[in-house]
Amino acid sequence: MSATDTISSPRSYHVTSAASAGLITLLIGVVCLVLEPIAPWLVKWPAAWSLPLAAWIGEGLGAFLNFIKPTMRVLSWLLEFPMGWANWVLNATPWPLLIALVTALGWLLGGLRMAALGALGLGFVLGTGYWSEGMNTLALVFVSVPLALLLGTGIGLLAYEVPRVKNAVQAVLDIMQTVPTFAYLTPLLLLFGFGPVVGLIASAIYAAPPMARNVLLGLERVDAEIKEAAVMSGGTRTQQLFLVELPAAGTQVMIGVNQCLMAALSMVIIAAVIGGFNDIGWEVLLTMRKAQFGQSVMAGLVIVVFAIVIDRYSGTLALARKSYDKRIAYGLIAVGVVASVVTWGQVSNTAGFAIFDGAAQVVDDAVGAFTASNGASLDQVKNGAMFYVLLPLRIGLDEAILPFTWGFQWTAAYSGIFFAATAAICVAVALSGRVALAAVLGCLAILLETGVSQLPWPFVLVGVGAIGYVSGGWKLTRLVMILLACVLISGLWERALLSLYLSGAAVLTCAVFGGLLGLWAAVSTTAWRIIRPICDMLQTIPLFVFLIPVLMFFQIGEFSAFLAIIAYAIVPMIRYTRAGIATTPPDLMEAAEATGATYWQTMWEVRVPYAAPTILLGLNQTILYAFSMLVIAALIGTTGLGQSIYIALGQADVGLGVAAGAAMAILALIADRLVQGFAEERRKALGL
Amino acid sequence: MKAFGNQSSTLPSTSSVADAIATSGLWQVFGAGAQEALAEQLKTGAASGDVASALQDRGLIPAVQDATFNVAPGELFVIMGLSGSGKSTLVRCISRLVEPTAGEVMIGGENILTASKKRMIEMRRNTLGMVFQHFGLFPHMSVIDNVAFPLKMNGVKPAARKARAAEVISMVGLEGREDAFPRELSGGQRQRVGIARSLAGNCDVWFLDEPFSALDPLIRRQLQDEFLNIQEKLKTSIVFITHDIAEALKLADRIAIMRDGRIVQIGTPTEIVLNPVDDYVREFSRDIPKGRHMTLAEVMEPFDGADATGPTLSTAMSLEAALADCAMTLDPVAVRDGDGKVVGQVRPEIFAKALARAE
After folding, report:
1. Which domains, from first to last, does chain B contain?
2. Looking at the domain A143-282, which fold is it?
3. Residue A9 confidence class, pLDDT cut points 50, 70, 90
4. Whole-angstrom distance, CA of residue A295 vs CA of residue A558
């Protein structure tokens, strides 16, 4: 071996491994498609080969659930007491007093700004006429959050104090957060029966992991010397933990409290889907089903107001706080008491203060008028996206191109030309030395021709394995292929592919537009000043509310679901792209400038590569967001796993619900690991 | 662990009960299976250097190797070494913040490595104090609460601990800042709080882990002087860690120099400067003015009764100071001991010879 060979060998070896992974995938895809006429099982996984995993899970879990049911029913009965009290207290407190209390709390937390936010927010809730529904929702949050905080802190402390269980605990937390929210509900439904307690428990379970994570993170980040100082001061382990380490981790713990509150609120509202409780989530769902969009916008805004007030209030806990004059808080409460006494007799009838009642009608009329006059263009947007993007992605060019959609029929001849052209391009690219790129192009051609939902299963399995290999080596390959095989044999494969298609399309759109918006926000402070509050807003709003506007304009269907997913999942992509690019160290940029690079040369050659790991993390978040929204979007018409979970919920079918939830979690987990692998590789390459 | 502690306690020990601190054969090895690997190596009876390299070959990290030294009551013992030499690990072994892999640490005649958890807590409350490089202040507590924390741990009543904390705070010159929070203080002030906290419990043994390294030079010198004043008053036994040779020479009664986990030399500042054991130690003191660290006691010749008037020189005086006092005279000058008795004399040639030897 000559000297030059030795030097270039690591590089060329790397290319070859990626290229060979791509070529193997391409080869398998081609073989499957060619052999399809004589061996259809190579493309479509035969139903006879599937194991009835859902039924087994249903039986096994059902037996277990029945076993613990009596205990749980007792728990449920016990929980009804605090819930009843919270409900009673919130509903019996005259609204002037409650608004005064919330305003006073706002003042103590963050001065005038927070006080005004609280007063205006609750004033708005009163004005919508959804005061009592809102209070019912808040009662659920207030009972579930302490439970979640206790549970989360307990789990966090356990993982911190017993290093042996730490990895296991973190894995469980990961899974708890990737399993879609609806999937929690089905087994809980079986345990607790219909009613608000299910929502309560589900939200306590769902909101505990962020708390646990932040407690663990906070404790681990406490300066080693602070911990040692506590030891040397002669504290017992308990004293060290509770007097020094936990308080010193305060900021991170408070971030946990904030996330816990938001998760609990979000889940309480989602839990309204199972109904039976007169809360604000139920109101949104009901009005949405009746197509009373004005009303559902109002109810949705109440949720948004709650979310913002709770988020901003608890957000101040994590900041270094000034102390505000307590006398003003007392004064505010006194005003509330006086107002309650003066208006006694009228205050109990909150409906009388629904000054925005007319607004719902106005919204309805406006939306009606808008859709009536712009119906054609709205339909055009919708059909354009469906016919030219979504359908071909879903069922492939061969089936999506019809006289009805594209104006002509895609025939076998077109397929032949398409593949021949692709083959020519691939060969040309391969000959220019970029074999991996050629393989990827070939695979994309197969995907376009057959559509995601009809891809041959060996092709998907090997393709994901190949990506895993390039991203994280054999270990990752093995993991993702085993996980994917579980979905394959579970009989949920077709639905999984449908989910993959819709979330894939949404993620792709988010990546392109989110990336561009992030780039724009990074180079223009004005743009960021506009985009940032929108991002904050979108991240605060519970998932459910995203459905209202898309439904108003595009009715039930896949396109609406697609839009709702994008609206929710685009935020991390924007944020991380901006953060990555905007935080390039100034000396790097100065160095580039000093060597004579133009602005955009610096951008593409220095800043974007430097930001790549951060941008990849944003993409990772976007994928996870898209999956969680996918399930919620099933409410307004998607096929795929989300629909299965939703159906299972309706029929209290634990097996299907858990199996579909697990399949969903598996897809999210695979995507997460693959992208993390690439991000890690980039980080290492940059020496970060 | 326990079995091992027993084994090493049968080794001949150079320490005596009178020592404030005595360590012998102290090892700290990091890595999986360190305990067994070290035990196995020590059984062969090989020299510690060979044991260390054998451990390194196994992928283990011998951060502290066979550390043996003792600190007399009231002595200020400085451990000096570059970063990564194991000095911070060593002080954490002696304070048992990490469990040493092998060896013995006696504090006030008690082996703390075999002490129970409860006994350890008791000792930390009453006997041991520690100051940290980055202060280790509790961010959520005010200055006075930080200082009173060890007392609180010890069950001292609020009023009493407040009084004691105020006393220590005034000793370090922080009166008036009692209610401030660490984030509101400058680096120098923070370390004063750290010092006050470590002193609140009236410790007999005081560990200081690079206490002044994070401070800028002016503040550092000021705190060094105040530290010496405090030590003058309290007479605690001190283990002081530093990477700064000038600081070590200024403060120490004796210095231990560490390199790659081993103590290469232990001696008074003068010994370190004048008789370095190897090039490594010599390199440290290269830029140190030798005359400042050599006392007359080491260079004077017997008194021959020539002239007992002239400048007043004492045995503890440094060459530099003495030279300044008698630069104008060519006659021999008498040197007196602490009681004023004439014990020797110096002449210009003696100065010249001593300084030439030192360089």
Report:
1. 2-127+203-288 (3.40.50.300), 291-358 (3.90.1280.20)
2. MetI-like fold (1.10.3720)
3. very low
4. 23
